[in-house]
Amino acid sequence: MSRLDHPLHFDGTGRTAITGEDDHVRDMIFQVLFTNPGERVNRPDFGCGLGQMVFMPNSGALATASQFLVQGSLQRWLADVIQVEKVEVKAEEERLIVDVVYVRLDSGQRLQERFDVPAGR
Questions:
Q1: Which of 57, 65, 107, 119 could connect to 94 by a Cys-Cys bridge, CB 3.0–4.6 Å?
Q2: Virtual torsion, Cα 23, 96, 88, 36, nearest 10 deg
Q3: Exposure class string for 64-78: b at 16+ Cβ within 10 A, else e
């Protein structure tokens, strides 16, 4: 099944771009990670605001707090789509590296995605 790609854009034929199921799930995870709470009018508590974390002093404590924040947000908002197995957040210089290991509930497929959060995101 094809889904609308995120961010919304047009493909080479001038139609709304679509994507496969794996990329769609990755897009949903991206939206949870990088949407700031309060950003969506109809769901003001949606998202975890990971992009704001890069403006805090980078440390192991920040990485640990971010790890719990990310895992809780993914479980809350995508529990009907994925089962989160592992979230690892590493602080490296001016960026956060987020690794998410999850199982798609519809296919049972185990996947790992990496999200790089640079300063100024």
A1: 119
A2: -60
A3: eebbebbbebbeebb
Domain harbouring 15, CATH code: 3.10.450.40
Secondary structure class of 68 (helix, strand, coil): helix
The H-assigned helical ranges of the chain are 21-34, 50-53, 60-78
Structurally, the chain folds into a number of domains equal to 1
